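Form 7-S
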Amino acid sequence: MKTRYNSLINLKKNIMDKSELVFQRANFDLNSATVALKLSYKTLEEIKSPQSGTMSDTLASRTLMASERGIIKHNQGWVVFAKDQVLQAKEQLKKDMIEHEKFKYLELEEVKKIIKKKKIQEMKDLDEVALMTHQRKGKK
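Output:
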């Protein structure tokens, strides 16, 4: 049954779907950030300090470790940012779902009103038909 809320419901549904996609992308980014952070930690563990050799080997190892720590710090920031994005996307999705449900409820209430009006009109029509039939029988 077509109501005045149909176009609004479709619009809210589209907005909700877009919010759901944003939420899914944010989750994907969070998973990617988490995997990158774990990989960075693993890479740092695999770096071995030279036990013997030249000073340049020691300096190179130290530079490599510092670089990997920088990557870890960057990935930690990425994880924090991704978590924040997930929370924001989740809140927006929640708001959009509430809006969508609100308009669906309003549409349902309007449909109930329309059905009630039709039933009342049908009862009036049946009463009128019954009255006309009763009057014809009374004239005969």
